[in-house]
Amino acid sequence: MQYLPREQGLLSRSRNEQRVFTSTRRTVRPGACQACRKRKSKCDGSRPTCAFCTRRRTECYYEHCSNEKPSDVLKRRNEEIRRELLNLRQIYDFLRLQPEKNALELLEQIRLDTSSAGAESIQKLAVCARNRSWLAKVPNISVSKHEPKATVLPPFQVLLRSPPSCVDTTSKNHS
């Protein structure tokens, strides 16, 4: 959204003295970079790096494309969060409703995942859980008083004493 300069006008200071003034409004950029938003400073919206970040030698990144409206950014981000929540619910349901062996296998995959990309890791784990034949029987989440209770697992110390079912203890050499 751009504002145009005001039309030139006359401002009366006194009856004998008149002064001509012009007022220009600043150009509003709908998409400031994240660094400028955080600092609450004026951003010129230049890409790939705005002038303010160039001067300060800071990382300059935009949450949206240059042709994307702020409302579209919010809609896209909302959809991403909705998908991530759905994936987390599927993983949660899987861990809650599947036999202990299957739940422990997925838990082990979660613990072995060292990637820093949270949403991508969650999506991969949800896909992995969905692709297992035993996951197809997991019901959708329903908020109800009549929901079945979760399986009671043994205390965590008992789980630590016995090796997971996916670890092969027979191939180790004890020398």
Automatic annotation (TrEMBL):
Keywords: Coiled coil, Nucleus. SMART domains: GAL4 (SM00066). It holds the Pfam family Zn_clus. The keyword Zinc-finger does not apply. The keyword Nucleus applies. Residues 32-62 form the Zn(2)-C6 fungal-type domain. Residues 71-98 form a coiled coil. One of its GO terms (molecular function) is DNA-binding transcription factor activity, RNA polymerase II-specific. This is Zn(2)-C6 fungal-type domain-containing protein. It comes from Corynespora cassiicola Philippines.
